[in-house]
Design goal:
homotetramer; alpha/beta; about 350 residues; 12 helices; globular; 7-stranded mixed beta sheet; 13 strands; Rossmann fold; 2 domains; Dihydrodipicolinate Reductase, domain 2
């Protein structure tokens, strides 16, 4: 472990985004993971906890207080909502860079956040300073940021295509946007709950959060930054689908006359490393990005309709571009490294 | 096997709708399966082909010509598209009742059918006489029919909630209807194809048929019977999801001011044996109808939108209410039997 | 609900064996479910808990103390280990018949039970009176019993073929028996645990309990009743496989010279309603019994070996013949009803 | 594409081992893929065939005759059995190195091969020259070889632990070895067949090839090289389990008195890059090696038995260490490169 490497800490490394950060950082040439914390698993060697990491890391989980996170250059919070807002400020005060994978710093409006997350916010002042880390759209801000609010998986999968259309002024502002989204079960996290047991979520499909999922205000805020009126005409329904990783958004929009959604998307992302706009007739499938920091998108003119109705298809791996991968991408930007360092892992197909 | 039982034949009994008909009819008290046909498996005992039916049926597959289908009272066609239109007319001419689970007789407009199914239609005269067998909406016609065009799975899952709203004049006719549908893989049939292999369709999610699925004109025709203008503002996107059985439709509609979708649905189906409108806040899941001839539906007012936007959720087992179960339901109606005879099988959960 | 029907109570009806009992009993013509208990869900209507049962039962969970179980004729315990041994004796004392689906009364030797189940036994006297309910082998005893220790899933799947071989004196007593077993995840029950989450148990295969699973002494006891020496030469390894229901045992035995395992099995079960010995060359698959109270078995002479080595394949649905189905079968025997009453449900394939 | 890189060709690159080779070689620093062939897909760009490889390769499938494979330094055959034996000899005659992932060159005894593979062998002379590429055991031979017979997945998963025990003379030669193996469905290849459809192989478990799988003589040959007598007392039963990738072998052996299997395994593989012997009490699971070129092994003394009976657990990813990964490992050895070049990909968990 070279002295000159950037020292990284991971708070809450026992969850799925935590182990995914560890997978991605394992061969990062400029970074070394110096500390992993877990209150519950303190003292346990990582090889005994995640056998997939045997022989790769020689690390032991530490209680947060023992972990000397203040010796790190960058700290990731891969914690449940409500932890980072309490624990990050002390690190930030010491000049440490923080990337929060939870939702604590994502919503500018504190009242909205408190309504959706059912708790008091503990560090409002840092909400204002945090940069929302949708990497492709906030590159310059991220490069300067000390605190990144890493986006949610749904907001990433929906936001990437939608922002390109919004920027191009393509959306018919009098019509309604529908985002019908489907997520793999790992999106629910590594928590002991009946609803995500194999025997409950397997061979089963259902909607959830229909009356107001927490990612609704997050996506709405993203849209509103471009067009507050359109943000009010937005419906989002998430569904749970029996796959481990993967997220698919099917977005229904009416575009202004003459606009071709696919062309807008291709122009927006023609130089992108991580957003792949697929040609006419393609069908992005979740496995084509399994394990990779890629968003694949395409668009179809809705068949046999008179108005300029379009169907946008967008897929990501919810744990990579929807969480840990985008977090590493943001870290690379913050550190001035090539954006794709350690992010060239190929999709696992089949 | 009592002499007085209705004799049933099944053409193409080696597919998933065929074996499902056999499962459902196994304990039907008024019906006996007299003949099963398969060109390819002729001579093979059913117990060697479907071990799930061992000890239940003593039947051998016969070539269609050897099967003496003209000795049957009712013949089901569980065949690929294009077979029933050639083989059913001879049986119909002898007064035999026919229930076609394929698409041959579903579309009134022959040009549209030929466009979508890429073949010449072989018995146009019977298209006009066929009754579209959406049981809950065509009960009287079905009771009198000789030929039933058994509906497709998507048209059943989407049509059942939509027809209730159309009948109540609930839909805002200036807005667009979106039906985002997800199907289990058994909907693709029991065909040797790479796309539906376990290693392709497993742990994977994708849209398909986006530029115009065959069930689009079928649903459009169903809507148009109530309101041709609304039928033109309809978008349908099917998706393949890694479950064996099950279909989920998420339907987005704008309703006329003051109308409550859930109330409309509850009134429409309050006496229904097979359509279960679930209370406010429910989340219909596909496994809640696995193996059962039930459609479960509920509705949500879209959160935080100004116009009267609604989200309708509808689930069926694509092989039961979406195919073989509805076929048996239609047979019961045609024979004047209680509609739920042999259809009380409970959902298998988990 | 007819006055003359047998009144049934189910203690612990929120688990998988509980809901399976409810599915099977829904259309039982001589039985009515009068009470379901759950400490945690008391007051909740069953339709809100198990949507698959909507419209079928009008029952509400009750706290055990409120449930008037003493008004029932038969009480099923579908509870975690350690509950029935405390709560059943009071019911038994009032003459009520009890069928315990847990392990409390399965092991004759209290020391062994306490070693494997890590608790004190609370009603040793009833262990001696309980009948081990492997229906096919204890028919006469079950008919007279007041308390049934319903067998475990592995012991049923392994025991059914093995007992036939033991009874025929077929096993070479100097050689070792291997039972390599694979179970669907529902066998672990409906408990909030990380290990059986979809994202942990899905797309994954592993052995567990290798150093001594609780079903080892249960199977050993079953073997020992025929031949204590052979019971000492028995190895059992269970594995977790990503299917919801289903259990497959692959059993390796050396038989005495000249003995044909398949012939022994066929003779033993030729008149059996629920054990299906499949012909030479068959490959029993778990889905062929999905949802049904059937054990399918076949046997192969091990290829290219000199000694009389055999491979026995046995499949059940762990929740039906391995739990709730066998419990209903035992209830039918106890009540003098036809053994297959309410147990003719067909396997769900696909 | 540097001139100094080794040029690689892949024959039959449309299958699962083909796409896996492409995934692994994508970032190999000393190798460039120069040609991929497919008779059926000739002319199709790889990005249109495998979307997971979009942006990574700019290659088009060519008919084998057009592909100028003779310009390559190394050619992989990822073809069905029977192709390499016909097409490889011409390349071998020109001095090109060949790694055959099919079974054509694995079995020394031509009669046995012809019996199991049901065809005439077309290049017997090369069978004698081929090196069986179980990398950990044939390192020196592989380094000198021109033709590698890359081992089957089962023979790798079973052979790695078994060879360590054989080398240590640990096996009791009078007792029988059982290898009960479970494979993910991708092991069956990417072929349009009904038996491996999602709706057939999903939520299902079964044995297959019980009367004599093709990998039986391959494993037997591997054992016989150490001890021909023990090779005759070997039983192998493969099973199909509903996971995409992954293979688990459970091996039952009786060891000579006093021998500890785990210790033998640990000593044999203490310096191994790709064989990980896990400590006492571990439970190797297939996902811990998903996508990685690793075999994880552990061993348990069978509980409550008198003789020195052991249970060995071994897992690999059937497409990586069981096929394409081991092929790349062998190529690295042949080229004198570090054995793990391009093989450090981390397991994907979850």
């Amino acid at each position: 472990m070279s002295e000159t490497k950037t020292k990284v800490g991971i708070v809450g490394a026992t969850g799925y985004t935590g182990v995914e950060l560890l997978r991605l950082l394992a061969h990062h040439p400029q970074v070394s993971v110096a500390a992993i914390t877990s209150r519950q698993e303190a003292g346990k060697h990582i090889a005994d906890y995640f056998p997939s990491l045997r022989g790769v890391y020689d690390l032991t989980f530490q209680a947060p207080d023992d972990a000397q996170l203040d010796q790190c250059d960058v700290v990731f919070f891969a914690t449940p909502n409500g932890v980072a807002m309490k624990e990050a400020p002390a690190l930030l005060a010491q000049g440490i860079k923080v990337i929060d994978l939870s939702a604590d710093y994502r919503i500018d409006d504190i009242t909205t956040w408190q309504h959706y997350y059912k708790m008091e916010h503990a560090s409002e002042e840092w909400v204002a300073k945090a940069v929302y880390g949708l990497s492709e759209w906030k590159h310059a801000d991220i490069a300067q940021a000390q605190l990144i609010a890493n986006p949610g998986c749904y907001p990433t999968c929906v936001g990437l295509p939608l922002l390109a259309l919004l920027q191009a002024n393509a959306l018919n502002s009098s019509s309604h946007i529908i985002a019908d989204c489907k997520s793999g079960v790992s999106g629910a996290g590594r928590k002991a709950e009946i609803g995500t047991l194999f025997s409950e979520a397997g061979d089963n499909f259902k909607a959830y959060g229909v009356s107001g999922h927490r990612h609704l205000p997050e996506i709405r805020q993203t849209i509103a930054a471009f067009n507050p009126d359109i943000a009010k005409k937005f419906t989002f329904v998430p569904h749970l689908t029996p796959l481990i990783r993967g997220m698919h958004a099917t977005i229904y929009v009416e575009l202004n006359e003459g606009i071709d959604a696919l062309q807008v998307l291709q122009e927006a992302y023609q130089d992108s490393l991580f957003v792949d706009v697929m040609p006419n007739g393609s069908l992005p499938e979740t496995r084509s990005v399994r394990g990779a920091n890629i968003c694949r998108i395409t668009a179809y003119r809705a068949p046999e309709t008179e108005n300029n109705q379009w169907i946008i298809l967008s897929v990501i791996d919810n744990l990579v571009k929807g969480a840990a991968g985008q977090a590493v991408q943001n870290m690379n930007i913050m550190l001035g490294l090539p954006e794709n360092t350690a992010l060239n892992c190929m999709p696992l197909l089949p």
